[in-house]
Design a protein that fits this description.
Layout lengths: L1 E2 L5 E2 L4 H15 L4 E6 L9 H14 L3 E7 L3 H8 L6 E3 L13 H8 L2 E2 L16 H5 L17 H14 L1
Parallel strand pairs: 3-4, 4-5, 5-6
Antiparallel strand pairs: 1-2
Length: 170
Amino acid sequence: MRWDSQGRVSKVHKRDSILKECEDSLRRLQADVIDLYQVHWPPEDNGPDLEESRQAMADLQQQGKVRWIGVSNYNVEQMKRLEKIAPITSDQPPYSLLRRKIETDVLPYCEERNIGTIIYSPMLPGLLTGAMTKERAENLPADDWRTHNPEFREPKLSKNLELVDRIRAG
């Protein structure tokens, strides 16, 4: 991944980009090695850049620049493709009371393959904290990514807030 001039992340899966990003990270961290290096999104077209990025990560590991290599937001079929190149140390999928899809395939695959799982967004960016209200969700700034997330919009918003109320009531 690379940051563009507007501060947005662009997903680049080319070898040269990954090698440069690693070198830049090592320099910024003032480190000789990165403990865990992950690719956070698969290529949108699910094409050959998937394997190209994995080979670059494996090469960084073989060079001793990273100790462990992982993924985030990859499905089982993508992980199977990657494991033909190098073992996966970790997977970082979204998981919460409202995002449980990974229970059927990703989590069992990771358990079977001894792939560590580091979940993200367990509180679904504030929705499950008890601090989110319908009014607050409806008045999020226009540039807040949650305004485009179906979980923060009707009809799901009311159902999600009802779930939070039921959990709080115990």
